[in-house]
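pasting dolichyl-phosphate beta-glucosyltransferase for the record, 248 residues
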Amino acid sequence: MSLVIPAYNEAARLPGTLHRVLGYLKRQPYRWELIVVDDGSTDDTAGICETHEPVRLIRNKVNMGKGYSVARGMLAARGERVIFTDADLAAPVEEIKKILVALDCADVAIGRRQTRVDQGITRETLGKLFAYLTRMITGLPFTDTQCGLKGFTLDAARAVFPRLTCRRFAFDVEALMLAQKLGLKVAEIPVAWRHVPGSKVSPVNDGWQMLKDTWRIRRELGELRAGDAVRPAGIGGAVMHEVGGDRL
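structre below
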């Protein structure tokens, strides 16, 4: 299993995150790797990763966006199951076992956030509005496209992420639309979740950009049917070239 964590200026909470994640993974019976993608951080995010063996560190020279960073990590992964989660561990690392179980009978497994701690009425309301509009715009049947815990079989990751074009926060929507258009089976499962202060997502500014990106994705992919050929390379194609496209 490969676990990918995108990180941008996470020096303050990354030591605790890595301690908890590595502690959990070292107790598991399967082989694993932990990949942190440093998205052009200006703090000591990279330095912290370098002091925590056996973390694989991938560094973007400049800030490229969460979508780009997740794609880069997913395409560098070597595990038969590839999972990504957020650096704040809003979904506890123990929840990855649910993703792994779901991947035994699905190509893609996505978390649906449960047991939420109050995150403020503005963020809560805008989150629900974005989820509703996303379903209306894209036709995706999923309740929660933006949960930060998702898993792919290696074959599914290699099918979806080379085609990703969205660099920022709406990449989840594009990944799920691509999975649907490629005829992959997607399972949505409830996972524990808690609000963690310090999110990099602005509910208003980023929310508006995410909606614009979602409209663009819908226009580009909306006419395709499940199983249709999808463009061969977006930003993930460039990422795959960087990390070694012949291997992936």
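The CA atoms of residues 67 and 133 lie 20 Å apart.
The longest strand covers residues 33-39.
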